[in-house]
């Protein structure tokens, strides 16, 4: 069985760090007008959103942990794909 207190703590830390990295990337985009930084900001914000969605589904909407994690994994995959695509040489600036 999953220790829900540990899961909540780890997801909370993930949300804070993801939001911080997304915000710092956006600030870098605004300062340097580097489009790549905008994509990095959006990618990290998608990763952060995935954690929030999983928490909302499980804690507030009372879906099963398996369903909440499936949705979280899908949004995480979208964020990682966005990051990977734009970090490839010749694509978005990597």
How many separate domains make up the residues?
A: 1
Number of strands: 0
Proportion of residues in β-strands: under 5%
* Average of pLDDT: 91
Question: Helix and strand succession?
Answer: HHH
- Helical percentage: over 70%
Written description of the protein model:
The structure is a single chain. Helix 1 runs antiparallel to helix 2 (35-60) and helix 2 packs antiparallel against helix 3 (65-87). This protein is mainly alpha-helical. The chain is elongated. The N and C termini lie far apart (41 Å). It has helices spanning 4-32, 35-60, 65-87. It is 83% helix and 0% strand.
Compile the SSE list and pairings.
Layout (H helix, E strand, L loop, with lengths): L3 H29 L2 H26 L4 H23 L7
Helix pairs in contact: 1-2, 2-3
Features:
mainly alpha, elongated, 94 residues, 3 helices
Describe what is shown at a glance.
The chain is mainly α. About 85% of the residues lie in helices and about 0% in strands.
């Amino acid at each position: 069985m999953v220790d829900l207190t540990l899961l909540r703590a780890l997801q909370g830390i993930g949300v804070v760090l993801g939001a911080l990295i997304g915000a710092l990337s956006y600030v870098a985009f605004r300062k340097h007008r580097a489009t790549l930084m905008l994509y990095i900001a959006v990618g990290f914000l998608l990763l952060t959103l995935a954690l929030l969605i999983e928490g909302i589904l499980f804690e507030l909407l009372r879906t099963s942990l398996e369903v909440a994690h499936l949705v979280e994994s899908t949004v995480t995959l979208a964020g990682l794909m966005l990051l990977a695509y734009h970090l490839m040489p010749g694509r978005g600036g990597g």
